[in-house]
Write a structure and sequence with these properties.
This protein is mainly α. It has one domain (11-242): Hypothetical protein af1432 (Orthogonal Bundle). The protein is built from eleven helices and four strands. It has helices at 65-69, 73-80, 86-98, 102-122, 126-135, 140-147, 152-169, 174-184, 195-212, 218-228, 232-242, and strands at 19-23, 30-34, 39-41, 48-50. Strands 1-2 form a two-stranded antiparallel sheet. A two-stranded antiparallel ribbon has the order 3-4. A hairpin with a 6-residue loop joins strand 1 (19-23) and strand 2 (30-34). Helix 3 (86-98) runs antiparallel to helix 4 and helix 9 runs parallel beside helix 11. The radius of gyration is 18 Å and the shape is globular. It starts with 18 loop residues before the first strand and ends in a 10-residue tail after the last helix.
């Protein structure tokens, strides 16, 4: 888990109004925002929805923001802040790759939002995490074509070179490309210990958990969350989303 935050950034000190709902202008779906979310992707239609009440607090000017949060909020804003941003270009490339497969596109967008929420607490390299979140499943079409199966081992085999080509075309640096490719090559089996990998692992499980284990009752689901998730923030989000009757505390 990330290091202790100052009170200005610790969600334990937030007021109820610091987490709120915003309606997607494109489809009307409601999205939950934290006050310091610059934007979110609508899980229903994929549109980018800006935060009308953005408030970074002290992090927007503090020289120690990166030490406190584990990431520089200005770097994240730069990565997703306009229509030609890295994240937008990755999403457009991912959508072109999946074509009409809306299920895979929606899954990638949901993993992206989960990764951003976990990263906010745990830290990590935003460029690696956001890129891996968008591209982690790009091996699926090739796996289905070659093996007739989207099994995880096939995705891990075929996904990295496809993602590498997409990232090179978008001009990402070689270090980021290598780290993202390593994550994609292990995102089903595990075996990496980097914070960025743990964030992606948890964000993917946050989406997949009810489909992978649909028969879990609440005690079984709670035990599985404790076993599967690798970050405190991921566990807290999973309990909040998949154990609605349990009162959970902030992961901060």
């Amino acid at each position: 888990m990330g290091q202790t935050m100052c009170p200005g950034q610790d969600t334990a000190f937030w007021k109820p109004g610091d987490i709120f709902e915003v309606e997607c202008a494109s489809c009307g779906h409601e999205l939950e925002f934290f006050k310091d979310d610059a934007s979110r992707r609508c899980r229903k239609c994929g549109a980018k929805v800006a935060n009308p009440r953005l408030n970074l607090g002290c992090a927007q000017w503090c020289e120690h923001a990166k030490e406190c949060l584990g990431y520089d909020p200005k770097e994240v804003l730069a990565a997703e802040g306009d229509d030609t941003s890295l994240v937008d270009r990755l999403i457009e490339a991912m959508k072109r790759h999946f074509g009409r497969d809306q299920k895979r596109i929606t899954h990638a967008l949901r993993v992206l939002e989960g990764a951003k929420a976990i990263m906010k607490v745990e830290g990590g390299d935003p460029k690696v995490i956001l890129s891996a979140a968008v591209l982690h499943d790009v091996g699926i079409p090739a796996a289905e074509a070659k093996y007739g199966s989207a099994a995880g081992r096939h995705q891990e085999e075929l996904g990295p070179p496809i993602a590498e080509a997409m990232m090179k075309e978008l001009g990402l640096d070689l270090d980021t490309i290598d780290r993202v490719s390593q994550i994609i090559a292990r995102h089903h089996r595990g075996g990496l210990d980097s914070l960025e990998f743990k964030v992606i692992w948890d964000a993917d499980w946050l989406v997949n958990l009810p489909d992978e284990f649909p028969r879990d009752d609440e005690p079984a689901r709670k035990a599985r969350i404790e076993k599967v998730f690798r970050t405190a923030a991921g566990k807290a989000l999973a309990k909040r989303e998949h154990l609605p009757r349990e009162t959970t505390t902030s992961a901060a």
